[in-house]
Amino acid sequence: MIHVENLSVTYGDLRALDDVSVDIDDGEFVTVVGPSGCGKTTLLRTIGGLETPTTGSVSVDGDPPAVAQSDARLGFVFQDHTLLPWKTAVENVTFLRRMAGKDPDPDGARDLLATTGLDGFEDTRPAELSGGMKQRVAIARAIHLGADVLLMDEPFGELDEITRDEMGVEILRLWRENRKTVVFVTHSVPEAVFLGDRCLVVSGASAGGAGRIVGEFDIDLPRPRDESVFGSEAFGTQVTRVRSALHDDA
Ligand SMILES: Nc1ncnc2c1ncn2[C@@H]1O[C@H](COP(=O)(O)OP(=O)(O)OP(=O)(O)O)[C@@H](O)[C@H]1O
C-alpha cells in the first residue's frame, strides 16, 4: 500500500503541493488528473523517492520510497520513454533487471515484448521504432523489472489519439494480467476515467498555486474495459463529474 500523509513539497519559495493525503491499495489503478503545473509530477516523483517531502510523509509498504526504489519495487514510465538508444528493444527491457542484480531473463523479455505487440521488433533499436512502440518497450521494461508499483507520468502524452486509445486498452490488459499497483498521471480527463479504479483531481487554482486534491472519484465502470466504453452514457457521466471538479476549482 502507498500511504501519503499531509504531504507538502516546496521548491525554494514555490509550494508545488500542499497538504496532500491519499492511500492507494495494492493492485489499485489510480489516475491523477489536473491542469499543467498543479503538482501531479511532483506527487508521482515524491511517491517514487525522486523528491523529498518538505513536510508530511510518503511510504510504500511501510518503507520510505527510496528503500522501495532500491529494492526494484517501483517501476517508472515517463513521457520521454528514456530508452537507451544504443541498445535493442530486448536489451532495453532486460537492462533494469541487470542493474538491479536480477537474472536479466531475456526469454521472458522477448515474451513480454511479443504480448505488447512488438513481435519481430525485439532486436530493433529505439531510433527505428515509432513513438507508440518505444512506449511499449518502456512499459515492458517496467513490468519485466518485477516492480509491484508502476508510476506512470503522461506516458501516452506524445502519441496520436488513436494510438493513445490503443495503448490505454493495452495497459489495462497488462495490468489485469500482472496486477500491479498503478499511479497514472494525465492531463486527459477521458483517459483518467477510462483507466482508473479511482481518479484523483489535483488543482492549485484556489490554493494560491499549490497543488491539492480537490476531488476524488470512484470510477465504477465495469471491467474489462475496451474502446466501446468511450461511447457509453456511464462513461460520459463520469467524465462530466471529474471535469466539473476541475472547473469548480479553476
Ligand atoms: N525541480 C523543480 N524546481 C523548481 N520548481 C519546480 C521543479 N519541479 C517542478 N517545479 C514547479 O512545481 C510546480 C508543479 O510542477 P509539476 O511538474 O509537479 O506539475 P504538473 O502538474 O506535473 O505539470 P505538467 O502537467 O505541466 O507536467 C510547477 O510550478 C513547476 O514549475
UniProtKB/TrEMBL annotation:
Keywords: ATP-binding, Nucleotide-binding, Transport. GO terms for molecular function: ATP binding; ATP hydrolysis activity. It comes from the Archaea. PROSITE patterns: ABC_TRANSPORTER_1 (PS00211), ABC_TRANSPORTER_2 (PS50893). Pfam families: ABC_tran. Transmembrane segments: none annotated. SMART domains: AAA. The keyword ATP-binding applies. Residues 2-229 form the ABC transporter domain. This is NitT/TauT family transport system ATP-binding protein. It comes from Haloplanus vescus.
